[in-house]
Specification:
With 348 residues, the protein is mainly α. It folds into 2 domains: 91 residues, no CATH class; 211 residues, no CATH class. Helix content is 70%, strand content 2%. A two-stranded antiparallel ribbon has the order 1-2. Strand 1 and strand 2 form a beta hairpin. Helix 12 crosses helix 14. The protein is globular.
């Protein structure tokens, strides 16, 4: 037990170091930061979830003591605890009449979606405990992104210096302001820039859906981290559960109910609504993975399967993920219809 905890502490310190290099803000630092959950997942899958929990605690305390308390909390909420939780669920099993039954990969995929959304909310609340400041920051960010993509964004005219103002001042006094006032429809008149209004509305709408995109990407990353850690631990011979048949992964229908609940929650005010939007994004990601697994499963034994899979991944690469929409719909239909699972083997 002591050896396991020591390994966990070491893995937590390595993970904290990978997370902390993000402060360097370089390309290499970002790459290393993306690898931060792997040490915790590896020690959790290879030894025990207690080692992963020790890693989470050690890494959080180290960052809080050496950098800032915020960094320690951010590491715990966004990296360490999600990695520990997924390692715990992966090694969860129960004794049945037919032997040891491991936690189903379909339910694990559903928990990945929920974990990604909760991780985003955790880092959002830690960054901006006040929802008004969170909303202002995201609106400012979305305005900056939209302006950077549109080089024709109008800039406010520079204010005239006192000398310039005195040279342009009319001798008629205050009545001259009437003639120099902007005409109706001129660029500087109020309500004269409908493109600015539409740009503001677009920026506000983008700020609203940012949590969905962030949680969507995080769910895909968490799935990859768990798969990669499992492969590494399996190669070392320390993986405690047999490698699952991933193409047969089938999410329970309760995940459909969770997606519907997330859609209803997205209309709530404050962080509750943000959580709903994040859940929509993360669950669409895992349903896309469900669709990918269903495609692998349904193509087994068919002639030209390798060519079909190559074509699918090529389309995903060329469209830069746009084809994930079709996979998401396929995953939703596969979960709702539930036609892959034999009738004599109900969902666990």
């Amino acid at each position: 037990m002591t050896h396991t905890l020591v390994l966990g502490v070491g893995a937590g310190l390595v993970s904290a170091l990978l997370f902390g290099v993000l402060l360097k803000a370089s390309a290499l630092a970002i790459t290393l930061y993306l690898l931060a959950p792997l040490p915790i997942l590896i020690v959790g899958l290879g030894w025990s979830h207690r080692a992963a929990l020790a890693a989470a605690a050690a890494g959080s305390l180290a960052l809080a003591a050496t950098v800032t308390p915020f960094m320690g909390l951010a590491f715990a909420g966004y990296v360490a605890l999600p990695a520990w939780w997924l390692a715990y669920l992966t090694l969860l099993g129960r004794e049945t009449a037919g032997g040891l039954e491991w936690y189903p990969t379909g339910r694990l995929l559903g928990w990945i979606g929920a974990t990604a959304a909760l991780s985003f909310i955790a880092i959002a609340v830690l960054s901006s405990p006040d929802y008004a400041s969170y909303e202002a920051q995201f609106k400012k960010l979305s305005h900056s992104l939209i302006d950077s993509r549109d080089p024709n964004t109008p800039r406010p005219a520079p204010k005239a210096t006192p000398d310039e103002a005195s040279r342009t001042e009319s001798p008629q006094g205050d009545t001259a302001g009437i003639d120099s006032a902007p005409a109706e429809g001129s660029p500087s008149a109020p309500n004269a820039k409908p493109d600015d209004v539409s740009r503001d509305e677009l920026a506000d709408a983008f700020a609203t859906v940012v949590p969905a995109f962030a949680a969507h990407g995080l769910a895909l990353l968490l799935t990859f981290y768990l798969w990669a850690a499992g492969r590494i631990v399996r190669i070392s011979g320390r993986l405690m559960r047999p490698w699952p048949d991933l193409p047969s992964t089938s999410m329970p229908r309760t995940c459909l109910a969770a997606l519907v609940g997330a859609a209803a929650l997205s209309f709530a005010p404050g962080y509750a609504g943000v959580l709903g939007v994040a859940l929509i994004g993360s669950f669409t990601a895992v349903f896309a993975l469900q669709g990918l697994a269903a495609f692998h499963d349904r193509s087994r034994g068919r002639p030209g399967r390798g060519l079909m899979l190559f074509g699918l991944y090529l389309i995903l690469f060329v469209t830069q993920g746009v084809a994930l929409v079709a996979l998401t719909l396929f995953g939703l239909a596969d979960t709702a219809l539930d036609r892959r699972r034999p009738k004599d083997n109900p969902a666990p």
